[in-house]
Amino acid sequence: MAATQVSTTPFDGQKPGTSGLRKKVKTFQQPHYLENFVQAIFDTQRGLAGGTLVLGGDGRFYNREAIQTILRMAAANGVARALVGQGGILSTPAASCIIRKYQAQGGIILSASHNPGGPDEDFGIKFNIDAGGPAPESVTNAIFERTASIDRYLISDAGAVDLDAVGEQALDNMQVQVLDPVADYAALMEELFDFNAIHQLFNSGGFRMCFDAMHAVTGPYAVEILENRLGAEPGTVMNGKPLEDFGGGHPDPNLLHAHDLVALTQGAAGLDFGAASDGDGDRNMILGQGFFVTPSDSLAVLAANAHLAPGYKQGIAGVARSMPTSQAADRVAEELGVECFETPTGWKFFGNLLDAGRITLCGEESFGTGSAHVREKDGLWAVLFWLNLLAVKRHSVAEIVREHWRRFGRNFYTRHDYEGVDAAAAGELMDHLRILLPDLPGKRLGALTVEYADDFSYTDPIDGSTAAHQGIRVGFAGGSRIVFRLSGTGTQGATLRVYIERYEPDPALHDQPVQEALAPLIVTARELAQIEARTGRREPDVIT
Ligand code: G16
Question: In the chain, fewer beta carbons within 10 Å around the N or the C end?
Fold first, then answer.
């Protein structure tokens, strides 16, 4: 079959956001839209020609079709070998694992993460580099620049690849290897965690758990690892079948969207442990009986207890968290005497620190936790880490977290999201805050005094690259903070995120309800940003 050169013209707005290019399916279905972006990857990532490309997605609507197109384009662009997940399925962390294990030159992952799927919903595409992680901004900028001048793409006119048959096939001169999407990832998990101890926890009577795969990509991974290898009761994994529309749900593991799971952990007969993962398997939510572990606390607890898991028994080199993530992990790093980094939102900012061995663990408030084992955040990894802790400590989730707070103090934390806000109004709200910044330090807002106020800017300590305008930080004496950011992952209007945090060292005050403990700061945040006046919203759409 021949490679055809197809003439095209650029589309506006193919700029990758926080994590790849995310748009409505209908946008991607326009003739040449997907092809232009993919060709921009091949035109700028020269190592792919003659090299190995990993390809897979979260199984959402349009996944299979996009994979066939990308395979035909890869062949036409001279890729020597494509490693594809069976059925077109690869979770984001599994794709990262496979890129690293097979020393591929890069990977294309198809996902809009936790955003809903279906013909009228969202689709996404991201490029991961040879280290296995999301492309850094230098790469995404180069891809974006190329999309602005693209005038042709290359595509083979060969027929479809059988995505369901594990094994080798040829597509023109390119070898296509369809892989079991779970095997390599599961083997890596066995190296990191004490599977015997977790097996005993599951089979010594009394321990009850549920994992909600939310009809997204982690279903097959969770069934294989939790039920088949670790001996959890069949049915432990709920909503385990990946569906193109995630069963009509919103595959976002938080208290709102994983409400069925949350309900199972409530009350005297509630489960001991509940966990969920998102569309592409990189996010996680951890629940105990009647207890929600904030992602920020989860990172801090894992950092403090990492030595209990075999893969981390030597201790950790350092920790990093995204700027809006609570400062709980900083206190752990300080006590362990290891480095702690504050990076902009986006997993890509952890890559250099992981590659350089400066950090072992990293995490984000947006339900992401991970380590140097791959270069993506990893939902099931976090769940297994918690199970390993529970198996070793034989304490409940709540006891482990409360003990952590007693030792380090508690960072009360919440995020308020205002979704689908008019984009211009949201931009003006941020501009208004920027104007206020110089006058804030020293001012009293409510009962607190502002210590610093800035528009967060980050200089990567490894390559010196800088990222500016990464969110407004207002820090108060005593460690409280308010952070304002606009999301970089939405596909409609703007999403304003307000992150609120208060440090409380006194254990006698650790049991207050979170929203109550933060109420004065919440009022301060709303007033400072003039949220209601500027957006027309009295209350946030989602509180986590
Ligand atoms: C992505 C990024 C994360 C980021 C999150 C939220 O996660 O990989 O690093 O924290 O989006 O970003 P934003 O606040 O800009 O919406 P995912 O799971 O959507 O790929």
Answer: N
Q: How far apart are CA 301 and CA 292, in angstroms?
A: 13
Q: Report helix, strand or coil for 191.
A: helix
Q: Is the pLDDT of residue 51 over 80?
A: yes
Mutate to test the pocket of ligand 1, among 283, 489, 499 (most ligand atoms within 8 A of CB): 489
113 catalytic? Reply is yes
- The mean pLDDT of 451-459, rounded to a whole number, is 97
Q: How far apart are CA 293 and CA 295, in angstroms?
A: 6
172 Rama class: left (phi>0) / alpha (psi -120 to 50) / beta: left
Percent of the chain with pLDDT over 70: 100
Residue 2 confidence (pLDDT):
74
Q: Please give the CATH architecture assigned to the domain spanning 410-543.
A: 2-Layer Sandwich (3.30)
**Calpha distance 128→108 (Å, rounded):** 6
The best mutation among 15, 18, 348 to test binding of ligand 1, ranked by most ligand atoms within 8 Å of the C-beta, falls on 18
Catalytic site residue from 113, 322, 326, 371? 113
| Per-residue confidence band for 1, with pLDDT thresholds at 50, 70 and 90 | low
Give 480 Cα–ligand 1 centroid separation in angstroms: 23
Fold of 185-408: Alpha-D-Glucose-1,6-Bisphosphate; Chain A, domain 3 (3.40.120)
* Nearest residue by C-alpha to atom 7 in ligand 1: 19
Closest CA to 103 of 124, 71, 80: 80
Res 470 pLDDT > 70: yes
pTM for the complete prediction?
0.94
For 280, residues 6+ apart whose C-beta sits below 8 A from its C-beta are 57, 58, 91, 92, 109, 111, 113, 216, 217
C-alpha to C-alpha distance for 497 and 531, rounded to whole angstroms: 11
| CATH, range 3-181 | 3.40.120.10
As given in the structure block, the two tokens for residue 364 are: 């984000």
Q: Count other Cβ atoms within 10 Å, centred on residue 157.
A: 11
